[in-house]
UniProtKB/TrEMBL annotation:
Domain Reverse transcriptase/retrotransposon-derived protein RNase H-like: start-end pairs: 342-387
UniProt cross-references to CDD domains, sorted A to Z: RT_LTR
Record-given protein name: Pol Polyprotein
Gene3D superfamilies for this protein: 3.30.70.270, HIV Type 1 Reverse Transcriptase, subunit A, domain 1 (3.10.10.10)
Signal peptide feature range: none
Species annotation: Phytophthora megakarya
Length: 388
C-alpha cells in the first residue's frame, strides 16, 4: 500500500499475491487540537439532553498527541519502568540508595526526610484546615452513585487503611459526598471525593494573604511534603462537612484534610508561583508564561475567541496601566446584543494591551506598618483607584 500524494492521503491497495491493483482508499487527516477547541461549547444540561436525544454518537477524551504515541502510555512494561524511575527520584527512595548522587546530601539531613508515608493521626501543628460556608447553607448532600464492582474493594481497602491509621472515623453527619475511583497513568486507582456541592458552598480563600504575609521577606521556599494533606488536621467543627459515602453504604468523615477541597491549597500555601504571579523580595510580578500566552494569542475571529483571551488578560489587568481605557473597544464588542465587529479600533486595542503587559511593572507589596492613601477617579466609562 503506497500513497499517491502525502498531502492528499490517498492510498493504492495492491494484492500481495497477484500484484493487481484492488482499488484506492483515502485517509482523512485528523482535526488539530485548535479545530476541536473551536467547536461550539455546550453546558452540562445541554450535553445531557443531547445524549438522551441520541444526537451524540461518540464521546472521546482528548489527550496530548505525544502521550497517544508514547510507549509509556500503551506498553505496561515501559510504564512500570517509568514509574520505578520516578519513584527512585523521591526522597524516600534516594535515602535508601547509596549510589544516588543526592544520597549523601539527604543522609546529612535524614531527620527531615520521611522514609514512609505518615500512617497515623498527626499532632496539632497550630494550623488546621477551616471551611467557611456561604451564609444560609444547610446540608451538602450528594447521593452515592453506582460504581463498577472492582471499585468496591479498592474503596473499602482505602478506608480500612485510613481508619486503622486514625485519619478517618465512622460518621453520622447530615452531609454526604460520594466516592469513586479514577485510573492513574500507572494503571492503579486514585480515590476521589466529589466535593462539588461543598466546594460550591465554600467561601473562597483570600488568595492575596500569601502576598501580604510576604512583605519584607527575602527568601521564599516551596517544599514538597509526603501526603501533605494528611499531615494537617481539620478544624473540629468542620469535620462533619467532610463526610464521604462509599458504594457499600458506609459513611466516613475525615479528621485530616482530604483531597479535592477547594481551599486546601490555600491552607498549605502550596502555589509559589501562584495565580499567574511570582512573589519575590522585590514584590509581585506577572508570570512570564502567562504573558507569553497573551502575546502569542492569534487575532480573535469570533466572540468565543475574544472571551477566552479577555479571561486571561483580566487575570493580569492590574499590571497594565490604563487598562480600562485600552480595553474599551474590545469590551464594547462583548456587550449584550452587540454583533461581532473587528475593526482597526479593536485591533489597536488588542495590540496595545499586549504591549502594556510586555512592560508589566513589579508591584510592591504593601507595608502594613505604614499609612495608606486611596486615590480614586472616574470617567464616563471606567472607575479607577490606586493604593499608595
Amino acid at each position: 500500500m503506497a500513497p499517491h500524494d502525502c498531502s492528499e492521503q490517498v492510498y493504492t491497495l495492491v494484492n500481495g499475491v497477484t500484484g493487481e491493483v484492488d482499488g484506492n482508499i483515502s485517509s482523512a487527516t485528523l482535526p488539530s487540537c485548535n479545530a476541536l477547541l473551536g467547536l461550539d461549547e455546550m453546558s452540562l444540561t445541554e450535553f445531557g439532553d443531547a445524549l438522551k436525544a441520541g444526537d451524540i454518537s461518540e464521546v472521546v477524551m482528548i489527550r496530548p498527541e505525544e502521550q497517544i504515541y508514547s510507549p509509556s502510555v500503551v506498553d505496561d512494561a515501559v510504564l512500570e519502568d517509568t514509574k520505578k524511575a520516578l519513584n527512585e527520584r523521591s526522597g524516600s527512595e534516594i535515602i535508601h540508595n547509596r549510589s544516588d548522587p543526592f544520597h549523601s546530601l539527604l543522609a546529612e539531613y535524614g531527620d527531615v526526610v520521611s522514609k514512609t508515608p505518615p500512617m497515623r493521626l498527626p499532632s496539632d501543628r497550630g494550623v488546621r484546615h477551616e471551611i467557611y460556608l456561604v451564609p444560609g447553607t444547610k446540608y451538602c448532600v450528594t447521593r452515592q452513585w453506582p460504581l463498577p464492582k472492582e471499585q468496591y474493594d479498592v474503596i473499602d481497602a482505602f478506608f480500612r487503611d485510613k481508619h486503622e491509621a486514625g485519619l478517618v472515623r465512622e460518621s453520622q453527619s447530615p452531609h454526604s459526598t460520594p466516592t469513586f475511583c479514577a485510573r492513574k497513568p500507572n494503571g492503579k486507582w486514585r480515590i476521589v471525593h466529589a466535593f462539588n456541592k461543598l466546594n460550591a458552598a465554600t467561601i473562597p480563600a483570600q488568595t492575596q494573604s500569601l502576598a501580604k504575609m510576604s512583605y519584607r521577606t527575602t527568601w521564599l521556599s516551596p517544599i514538597d511534603l509526603v501526603d501533605l494533606y494528611y499531615q494537617l488536621l481539620i478544624r473540629a467543627s468542620d469535620i462533619p462537612l467532610t463526610a464521604v459515602s462509599t458504594p457499600r453504604d458506609m459513611l466516613w468523615e475525615w479528621l485530616v484534610m482530604p483531597q479535592e477541597l477547594s481551599n486546601a491549597p490555600a491552607t498549605c500555601f502550596e502555589p509559589i508561583p501562584f495565580l499567574g504571579c511570582f512573589i519575590g523580595k522585590r514584590g509581585l510580578r506577572a508570570d512570564p508564561a502567562k504573558i507569553k500566552a497573551i502575546v502569542d494569542w492569534p487575532v480573535p475571529v469570533n466572540l468565543k475567541d475574544l472571551r477566552k483571551w479577555f479571561g486571561l488578560v483580566n487575570y493580569l489587568h492590574k499590571y497594565s496601566e490604563n487598562y480600562a481605557d485600552m480595553a474599551r473597544p474590545l469590551s464594547n464588542v462583548l456587550k449584550k446584543d452587540m454583533s461581532w465587529c473587528w475593526d482597526t479600533d479593536q485591533q489597536a486595542a488588542f495590540e496595545a494591551i499586549k504591549v502594556s503587559l510586555l512592560h508589566a511593572p513589579i508591584l510592591a507589596l504593601p507595608d502594613p506598618d505604614r499609612p495608606f492613601s486611596v486615590f480614586c477617579d472616574a470617567s464616563e466609562f471606567a472607575i479607577g483607584c490606586a493604593l499608595l
